[in-house]
Structure formats: C-alpha cells, structure tokens
Design a protein that fits this description.
Strand content: 5-15%
CATH superfamily of the largest domain: Type I PLP-dependent aspartate aminotransferase-like (Major domain)
Helix content: 25-40%
Number of domains: 2
CATH class of the largest domain: Alpha Beta
Number of helices: 13
CATH topology of the largest domain: Aspartate Aminotransferase, domain 2
Structural class: alpha+beta
Bound molecules: pyridoxal-5'-phosphate
Radius of gyration: 22 Å
Number of strands: 14
Order of helices and strands: HHEHEHEHEHEEEEEHHEEEHEHHEHH
Largest sheet: 4 strands, mixed
Length: about 400
C-alpha cells in the first residue's frame, strides 16, 4: 500500500544531508572571524573570484550577493534597458525573467526543446535578429543547453549571450565549461545549489572592460583602482562578504568529487528506471561531457497518470521518503506579474504557443541532488518509490 494511504514507506532513513561541510569550512570561517576583516579589504573574495574563474576556465570572476544580482549586473553591463528584447526560456526559475523586467526590457520567450528541459536552440536561431539585445539561455538542473545554434545566432547577429549557469557549476558542453561559452556566465551559491554559502553569486567572463564594469556595478559604481567619487556609473552594493567567500573556497574543493559521485549514481538510476512506464528520467542532451546533476528531473507522463495531478504524485513520493518537489508548475509567461507586464507591453501569449514548456510545467518534477550523494541503496530507493507509485497510480486518482 502507498505510504500516503497508510502503507510502509520505501525509505524511512534520511538521504545524505545537504550542505556538506567539515573542518575546512570551519577553519576558513574562523580565519575570517579572527582577522577582523569581514568585508571590504579582505583577501577571500578576491581569491574566490580568481579560483572560481579558473575553474570555469575564464579570465575573470566577479563575486556578488547572489545569482539574481549576477544576472542583473551582467545585463546592465551590456547596457540592456527599457524596451530591449532578450531571448530567453519561459521554463526556468523566476529570477531569470525578473531581472529582465526590472531593467524595463522585454523577455522574448522561445519554447523548450521537445522532451528536454532547456530552451530549443533551433528556435533561438529562428528568433534572433539584429534588434535583439541579448540571448539568455539557462542550463536547467545542470543540463547544458545545446549551444551550437545559440552561438551561431550570437555570431551572425552580433548579439551577446549571457549564460544563466545558476544550476550548472562544473558542467561541460563539448569540452567547454558552462559559464565560459557566452560573453558572461552567472552562477548562484544559494543554499540548495551544488556549492553553497547560503547565498552568493558570481559572474565569470573574459573581457577586461566588461569585468571592470561588472566590478563597478557590484561595488557602488566604483571602478577597480579608482577613487570613490571618480565613478561614471551608478552601481549597487551587491558585494559578497569574506565569510561567504571563505566557505565557497572550501566548497569548490569538494565539487569535482561530488559531481563524479552524482554522475555515477545517476547512470545507475537511469539503468534501473528503464523499465518504468509512467515516469521518464530526463537525461542531459547529447554533447554533455559533464553535469553536476543539480536536479534529478523526472517526467510523470500525463497519459499514464490520468486524473492524477503532479502535486498528488509529489506528495506520494514524499510520503515514500523521497525529497521531491513540483518544480516550476507554470511557464513564466503565466506567472501573474510577468503576464501583466507582457500585456502592458502589448504581448499576449496564445494557448498552444509553447507546447513543450506547458508540458514540462505540467509533468516534470524535481528531486534534490543529495539523493545522488549516497550509494546504490539510495539510488535503488528512488527507483523503488517511483515503481511503487506507478504500480498504484489508480489509488491516487
Ligand atoms: C536558473 C536560476 N537562475 C537564477 C537563480 C537565482 O539565483 P539566487 O537564488 O542566488 O538569486 C536561480 C536560483 O535560485 C536559478 O535556479
């Protein structure tokens, strides 16, 4: 019997906890505490910026408060402003679009690739023209966007690409690190991410002038190596603290081993899940050389689970002991403040315009990456819970 109906859960022990931390984080934090330099003037933020940029294979890293501010700074550094069009995906976390709206720009949505999670690069190629000011693809759950046509569109029309890499630390697409392919990459270190300091963000890039502008925007408009009131920009105080950088330097040392473990466990899960009929594990696209598997994304097939909502399936999975969530239940153009904003600018999305984003929002559920940090017992429990739910789907209707 399903646990949600009073049966025994598949799993009653917890999965590995997140975040993972130890002596290294403790020592780094204490060293900042004892130095008395907790903000401006310390060395940790500078060191972290350099080390993370090196990890992503970029020349510069500009640390900041969080992933949302990283995206906003990147768009502002490119001069994106009122009325500018930015090609992006409607199937992502709110922040990817909210920064576009905050700058008064217009998100030009294109659909998700069929059966996948990311923006359809073929449609990006078809939508970009000389009037578009930026392309903002998102590497959902750590799955790299198929970048070839995105880059072709970028080069053909001279439109810069800003990668939303908030969920893709250490991912690689055809041998290149995510966050180094576009003109800028934006990462988040919010608490659920695969490396975290509770909150935090960084912009990775190669262009020295843009790096200078991003640093200035993060630091009240002050360009590096200039005096406070010599600035030519109005910026923000979006600075990272020394404490955050200290934790992140330690977290970065753990990342590769954790990525390898998650990749191994994901392959094992994919092998087990092959016999499922109601659920489909979404695999990263061809060309993916590496992914941190920030999210395990699972499609609950609408044809199989007739009359059972995604919410109900997620509740059933949670009752079985699996940390599942409904993910993003609506494409962003249906999120009321964005819908109103689009309508205000004369944009109405007609039903059926984005079938793949609608299907993803209706059918994809997320399981947190910590389930892949254990061993084969954890992997089997995820599979057994999915199998049990599909076998008892009728009880959920
Ligand atoms: C795809 C995506 N973009 C942007 C963000 C914003 O990052 P933050 O929460 O650090 O502001 C997040 C995460 O929260 C995200 O998942």
């Amino acid at each position: 019997m399903l646990a949600i109906k009073g049966g025994k859960p598949v799993r009653s022990e917890p999965f590995p906890s997140w975040p993972v931390w130890g002596r290294e984080e403790e020592e780094m934090l204490l060293s900042v505490l004892r130095s008395g330099v907790w903000g401006l003037g310390g060395q940790m933020v500078r060191r972290f910026g350099e080390e993370f940029a090196g990890y992503v294979r970029c020349r510069y890293g500009v640390p900041c408060m969080n992933g949302t501010t990283a995206l906003k700074i990147a768009l502002r550094a490119l001069g994106i402003g009122p009325g500018d069009r930015v090609v992006t995906t409607p199937y992502t976390f709110l922040a990817t679009s909210s920064v576009i709206l905050e700058l008064g720009a217009i998100p030009l949505y294109v659909d998700v690739v069929e059966g996948g999670v990311n923006i359809d690069s073929r449609l990006v190629w078809e939508s970009v023209d000389g009037g578009v000011k930026a392309i903002l693809p998102v590497h959902i759950g750590g799955h790299p966007v198929e970048m070839d046509l995105v880059e072709k569109a970028s080069k053909s029309f001279g439109v810069p690409v800003v990668e939303d890499a908030a969920e893709a630390h250490g991912a690689e697409w055809r041998g290149r690190r995510i966050g180094s392919i576009g003109v800028m990459g934006c990462f988040s270190f919010q608490s659920s991410k695969v490396m975290t300091s509770g909150e935090g963000g960084i912009i990775t890039l190669n262009d020295p002038e843009l790096a200078d502008t991003c640093s200035a925007l993060v630091n009240c408009g002050r360009r590096p190596n200039r005096d406070w009131y010599e600035g030519d920009l109005l910026g923000y105080n979006y600075r990272m603290t020394e404490f955050q950088a200290a934790i992140l330097l330690s977290q970065l040392r753990r990342l590769d081993e954790q990525i390898e473990r998650r990749q191994r466990n994901f392959e094992e899960l994919a092998r087990l899940c092959r016999d499922l009929e109601g659920f489909r594990l979404i695999r990263p696209p061809e060309g993916t050389d590496r992914t941190p598997h920030y999210l395990v994304i699972i499609q609950a097939d609408g044809g199989y689970f007739r009359n059972v909502s995604k919410q109900k399936i997620v509740e059933a999975l949670r009752a079985e002991g699996i940390p599942a969530s409904v993910g993003w239940p609506v494409p962003l153009y249906r999120f009321p403040p964005i819908k109103r904003y689009l309508e205000h600018h004369g944009i109405r999305i007609s039903p059926g315009e984005f079938p793949n984003a609608e299907r993803a929002a209706a059918e994809y559920l997320f399981v947190h990456h910590r389930v892949l940090l254990g061993d084969s017992r954890e992997v089997e429990d995820v599979y057994r819970a999915l199998k049990k739910i599909e076998q008892h789907a009728g009880d959920l209707a």
